[in-house]
Amino acid sequence: MSNSWFRFRQFSIEQERCSMKVGTDGVLLGAWFPISAGLSVLDIGTGTGLIALMAAQRGAGSVTAVEIDAAAAEQAGMNAANSPWADRIAVEHTDIADFTGVKYDRIVCNPPYFRDSLRCPDSGRNTARHNDSLSYETLAASAARLLADDGLLCLVLPYDSVETFAKCAVANGLEMCRRTDVVTVAGKTPKRSLVAFGRHCPTSDICVLEMCGTDGEETPEYIALVKDFYLKYQMP
């Protein structure tokens, strides 16, 4: 995952200027969040542009990708420009708290996930990994401000942070309507959760995704989720 590039089935990612490289969390969220052809998507903290590109591949009508780090924003813009969907992806170098856009059908984010933990010497990596620069409170408020009335906010979060974010979401008029807890190996405790919030969510659908069985083999459910993106599942 530390290569300067990462090739997917329909697009490639250059990532040498991005503090956070392509990772499983982003791929899971990009493949999981509900999307229909023609919907508008806002990707908060796009990094390499991975989720924005996945959204475009899945049929989003337009994708706006916001990134606070200048180098990452420039590289995400290049990745979008070199993709088959250059006309549908716009990258903005800005803080989401200052961003004023239209209302979006889907807002997606793989937010900084370390709270109150030690910093590393790389300031860019700290921005990407620690939520000082994008607190849950700011993310929830920004999403509520930019989300269409019937839209969804979709995130990948540490399993033990879901309830913390849910409280911020509720404070901004958003309720959880879908949750998938991700287990790397069957029988293990979930490490990540994929969650969706909206304004009109009468029920909350909760399920578990096991990436691998106890035999170490990838599960059919996991393969079905990501097979349209990873090269190793490409048909001969």
Q: Report the portion of residues in β strands.
A: 25-35%
Unreliable sequence segments: 114-131
Kindly report the CATH topology: Rossmann fold
Task: Give the overall silhouette.
Answer: globular
Roughly what percent helix?
25-40%
Order of helices and strands: EEHEHEHEEHHEHEEEH
CATH class reads Alpha Beta
The largest sheet is: 8 strands, mixed
Radius of gyration in whole Å, from Cα?
17 Å
Tally of individual domains: 1
**Alpha-beta classification:** alpha/beta
Can you put this structure into words, describing what you see?
By secondary structure, this protein is an alpha/beta fold. The chain has helices at 24-32, 50-57, 70-81, 123-129, 136-146, 162-171, 220-226, and strands spanning 5-7, 12-14, 40-44, 62-67, 89-93, 104-109, 147-158, 175-185, 192-198, 205-212. It has a single domain, classed as Vaccinia Virus protein VP39 (Rossmann fold, 3-Layer(aba) Sandwich), CATH 3.40.50. Helix content is 27%, strand content 28%. The strands form two sheets. An eight-stranded mixed beta sheet has the order 5-4-3-6-7-9-8-10. It has a two-stranded antiparallel ribbon with strand order 1-2. Helix 1 (24-32) runs parallel beside helix 2 (50-57) and helix 5 (136-146) packs across helix 6. The longest helix has 12 residues, at 70-81. The relative contact order is 0.15.
